[in-house]
Amino acid sequence: MGGQRPSGQYADLRHAVDARDGEKIVFSWQVWPDKATLEAAEAKMREDKRFEVSGATPFGAKRLILGCFRPV
Cα-Cα-Cα-Cα dihedral of 8, 13, 15, 18, to 10°? Predict the structure, then answer.
């Protein structure tokens, strides 16, 4: 497990998600044409039984990082 870094210091992605030996990090992003399209897609995914998870997830959900950005 990674250690705590003092406040104000930069951390790399492995430290940010507390990656353990042998774990792989996945970084991805999605671009949506507008917020309404995103919300409609999320609603469909919530209704789709194929997205239901039974048992343990294959990843540490508490270590996910989600960010929302706007083009500059």
Answer: 130
Which stretches of 2-53 are assigned E, i.e. beta strand?
none
SS3 content of the chain, % helix, strand, coil (to 5): 30, 0, 70
Burial class (CB in 10 A: 0-12, 13-18, 19+), 16: middle
Cβ-based burial of 17 (10 A; exposed 0-12, middle 13-18, buried ≥19) = buried
For residue 18, is pLDDT > 90?
A: no
- Burial class of 18 by CB neighbour count within 10 A (0 to 12, 13 to 18, 19+): middle
At 62, list the tokens: 């508490």
pTM of the model: 0.55
pLDDT category at 45 given cuts 50, 70, 90 is: very high
